[in-house]
Structure of ROK family protein:
Amino acid sequence: MQTDLVAALDIGGTKIAGALVDGDGRLVAQARRPTPGQAGGERVMAAVAEVLAELSAAPQWTRVSALGIGSAGPVDAAAGTVSPVNIPGWRAYPLVARVREAAGGLPVTLVGDGVAMAAAERWQGAARGYAGALCLVVSTGVGGGLVLGGELHTGPTGNAGHIGHVVVDMDGDRCPCGSRGCVERIASGPNIAARALAGGWLPGPDGDRSAAAVAAAARAGNGVAIASYERAARALAAGIASTAALAEIEVAVVGGGVARAGEVLFAPLRRAMAEFATLSFVRDLRILPARTGTDAGLVGAAAACREALHPAR
């Protein structure tokens, strides 16, 4: 039997996506459900099981040899558990065991969603060819993953590079993780939107209160919307510059739903990097948009799974 496909799950605070991914990174079957983020843990798992059931009904399922998961974090790859900050029903939740059971006993690899994105961008995206890279997912939360010495660096629990909970404002607002002033508390989509609303920005007639709507208002010249994105960009720049000082990365690749704001985010991010990345060995750090798009989590979960199965390849 031909077994050239890997199943992949991308689990975040907004959506649970699944796909069958071939050796070239193509998605040959897909399924998706909204994440019932405020529901109990078993209801969230039921949505994961629905995605897996839809994938397993695809005719290509017989070619699947393993399954990779990229999950909002923190995760514990060694224990097979997840405790996503933005999915309160999952605390030390045994996701690997539950997914393995739902997937008929397939081998399962778990990494954080930021690590999954880094795997995707190293394989097929903007981090390809770089020895040192930080890849960021800026969405409902903020995650990250590292490429060091040309190799994906997951850390022992699968969380290495989790820039979202680097503190950039010591006296900042309390983060759901328990700390204060985290990058995520300032730069995530919901926090960009909440800050704009608190500053007086008003949604349009459609009532859209998302970060995407704030980005549209910023492009139209709304000062409050512009300021909210600039604040997010400064938090990201501070975290990226600190990572660069520690690890001498050459490039930071920024993806996720918030990155689709384009220059509304990237222009102030580049300006802030010039302010924070001042040491000689970090001044030339490049800021690039991710290339693997909305499929990065799925492609990366598959890539991390293949790497775990065949580390010498």
User: Anything to note?
Assistant: The two ends are 22 Å apart (CA to CA). The domain at 126-290 is CATH 3.30.420.40 (Nucleotidyltransferase; domain 5). The mean pLDDT is 93. The chain has two domains: 5-113, 126-290.
